[in-house]
Amino acid sequence: MRRPITTSADAPLLLQDHKRPVTRRDFLARGFLSGLGLVMAPTALSLLRASTAHAQAAGCVLRAGTGMIPFLCIDLAGGASTAGSNVLVGGPGGQLDLLTAEGYSRLGLPSDMTPGNPGQVNTELGLAFHSDSAFLRGILSKTSAATRANVNGTIFCARSDNDTGNNPHNPMYGINRAGADGDLVTLVGSVPSDSGGNSAAPMSMIDPTKRPTKIDSGQDATGLVDTGNLVSLLSQTQAGQVAHAAEEITAIKLARESEDPALETQILCNYTQTADLIARYGDPDVLNPMLDLDIIGGPNPIFTAAELNQGRFAKTAAVTKLVVEGFAGAGTIEQGGYDYHDSTRASGEDRDFMAGQMMGAALEFAARRATPLMLYVLSDGSLVSDGVLDNTNAGRGKGIWKGDSSDSAGTFVLVYSPTGRPQLSRAGANQIGYFRRTGSVETAATAVANNVALLAEAIVLNFMALHGTVGNFASVLPTHGLGSGPAFDNLIAFAPIV
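Now predict its structure.
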């Protein structure tokens, strides 16, 4: 073996008969990572690319959010009754183009509670809800009147299969393709699935490199960053200074050895990104919903301590904070228990109310951050009633849920804007497609009425409509099946808000 060529005892070893250093072990052996370099050695964490002037100067590929409208998906697993008893649905003329009494009875509404009766319609959210909707009551419990005045929405009359995660409902990968990204991660979800929720993502949209990170608690949220022991030993500012010093030392050492420019850039970028991560997230509590006074502990918190002890609200708070504040580009919150046809109405009312609280909490948090939000609510299938009523206090005199029904399903979108109520693309766009008078989806009404994968594409289309980028849709989803012309245009509910 030739003697290593060195210039001082501490200089990197320039071993002419060894391959170029590639692994962390190689760099340690050759003296590029020593002392402070060991403390700040690049880890998986250092791949989180922060946007700094230094990183840009080094030519780094940057990790930064795109500033697009935050997107949240609430996935109610089991087949919640969305259409009729919660969000109103009607015939070709829109939400208030009335169905027959038998049609509404099938959707759980007795004759004296159909929307043709006085006081049965609530439009505080732009989208028309039944005035006694459990979803609506939950939303009202978590939102201010000012927040509700800046919301609008639409319901998609579209069937989906019952009690299965195989419905390709979840559009998050498509939302990312449309440009959504976060400062720390691209996608998050409350369960460890490819979609982050119960329902699947369309195969045509999936990018395995963007698989959602599981987040269902404040601990998971703060666990997105780990700056090691340095921050605990020093102040955050001092730790950042140490990291930058390690970066400069490495740059000096690299200058003494001729290496591949791309390799040198990657080494420097790892240090730059680590230093910036410490500067921005040296205190990971900035991600912790349990320390956010708008969520808990402040003068007017969205949640009580007792609520945040429940899993559904803990994960709602964690995912919502990450998405609304731009740490993640899009997120899914899955909640089970929505196959509630147990020959009562009470069980469904209770669960729907809590789902409404989850929705309302997300809208209210967006309002307090003066940030727009697109909220998508889906479920796998739905339910029907046989007209028998549950007259208990909890049943509220509504129809008992007796069985699953894929053809009474629907999904809906609520959009919040801090600048005022979002405008629709046209009159009547609060409803996409329609129901037959007898209380089932008209499957010939739109391309998405009988195709869940295309429904997910339509959600991406409306996300892009809110940004005024519909013209790019074919490049984002080049194999889409939404057609063209009026059939395509009629799937767009919203005018741009940004």
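The first strand starts at residue 71 and ends at 76.
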